[in-house]
Amino acid sequence: MKNIYPVLLAGGSGTRLWPLSRKSYPKQFSSLISDQSLFQRAAMRLRSSDEVEFRAPITVTNNDFRFIVAEQLQAVGIDPGSILIEPEAKNTAPAILAASLFAFAKDPNSILLVCPADHMIDNVFDFHAAIKMGLKPASGGEIVTFGPMPNRPETGYGYLELSDITPNSDGVCRVKRFHEKPTRERAVQMISNGNCLWNAGIFLFRANDMISAFEKLAPETLSLTSDAVSKSKPDLGFLRLDPGPWASLENTSIDYCIMEKLQNLIVVPYSSKWTDLGGWEAVWSESDKDLNGNAVSKGAYSIDCVDSLIRTESPNQKIVGLGLDSIIAISMADAVLVANKNRSQEVGKVVDLLKSYKVEQATTYPKDHRPWGWFESLIIDEKFQVKRILVNPGQALSLQSHNHRSEHWIVVQGTARVTINSEVKFVGEGSSTFVPLGAKHRLENPGSTPMVLIEVQIGNYLGEDDIVRYEDVYARQ
């Protein structure tokens, strides 16, 4: 049985699922369909079984998500493995090549299974059986992809046209060509032809075969990525790829850079359910529905609605749909989306519009995740701000000071260990403490459960950049 290194691609921004998915906290880390996030579900289905054996994962992500990745993997009992940090987003080609170079240096015989972190695959047994089917050609030097069988003329997916619709004795087919996301008419035609599969973006290959493909088809990308990997530096258990050569890389997908040019691309047809949650219509499709076809979340209500998705993402916020037909209505504490379900693939235009007006909600999530926990702003005014702050067990904020604000902390759950200049004290539930402007201070959670406090900031400037750090266990500047 071959040892496979799963590669999870977890650096995307997922703008088509705005306002839930934003640049600062994208869809793969959200619990869209179940209690686990899409990233956690992806990692959980890449655990060893009787069919295939997996090593600890290799995750490729960016600097902002590194602690979220580690925290979410540990929360579901998975060894975080190796986490490679991209200095900036350069699409899937450099990310997959970096993982291949890293794995090859670690194990020259390594086989990689590359998976996006935001897909839905419910039948793990069938998925592992498909991987096992692809192992023989992958072990023989082929690059293997997996093609879900279309059940509708989907315009949000790419397609794989097959050289022969009948699988060979090993159960695999040759790929003739790639097709980008088609028009509806073209999608209907391809499905009626019966010789196409969806392009899932899942690949199985030996690391050295992928490196050889780049050497032949994209040598400059190979040179720059090799340089970024060889000059990478460990940082608190993560591996930071070198930003110098990485900055010169072309922003390009693995399909365009490599897969579309290969002569030896094999596809394993996959007949079980697969979904790329690339838009709200896909979320509606995957959600439980009432007799009228409505997917309604907790805290949301429907009156005389049909085929609609009505969700609230804030526990204290209610949303009611009245007389809606094929409508998406998503409510969050700081933003609301109302759209025709048939145009859910165009939600990226909403984000672009908000960016053009410099609206913060276009990219920033209301809950700001940090290495030690998270905070969210409850009230923002000209000269004061109220936040809720959660600090995970055993974690600590940096020793810091502020030039423009004082802070008042009220602990509402757990116990805080507070440092203010030379004084160190414990503050329990219901108690408070004051941090004067300019004072060096640190907040810690010495307990075994999350600690929550309410912070009231008062000052003439309340931006997050008003922080002078003196000590930080996370090595932030």
Helical residue percent band? 10-25%
* Overall body shape: globular
Poorly predicted runs are none
β-strand number: 32
Structural class comes to alpha/beta
Averaged pLDDT? 93
The overall number of domains is 3
CATH class descriptor name of the largest domain: Alpha Beta
CATH architecture of the largest domain: Alpha-Beta Complex
- Separation, N- and C-terminal Cα atoms: 46 Å
At the third CATH level, what is the topology name of the largest domain?
Spore Coat Polysaccharide Biosynthesis Protein SpsA, Chain A
Computed over alpha carbons, the radius of gyration is: 24 Å
Please give the count of helices: 11
Spell out the CATH superfamily of the largest domain.
Answer: Spore Coat Polysaccharide Biosynthesis Protein SpsA, Chain A
What does this structure look like?
α3 (92-106) packs across α7 and α6 crosses α7 (219-230). The model has no long low-confidence stretch (mean pLDDT 93). The two termini are 46 Å apart. It is globular, with a radius of gyration of 24 Å. It contains eleven helices and 32 strands. The protein has three domains: 3-276, Spore Coat Polysaccharide Biosynthesis Protein SpsA, Chain A; 280-355, no CATH class; 367-471, Jelly Rolls. The strands form seven sheets. Strands 1, 2, 3, 4, 5, 7, 8, 9, 10, 11, 12, 13 and 14 form a 13-stranded mixed β-sheet that branches. Strands 22-23-24-31-26-29 form a six-stranded antiparallel β-sheet, with no helix packed on it. It is 22% helix and 32% strand.
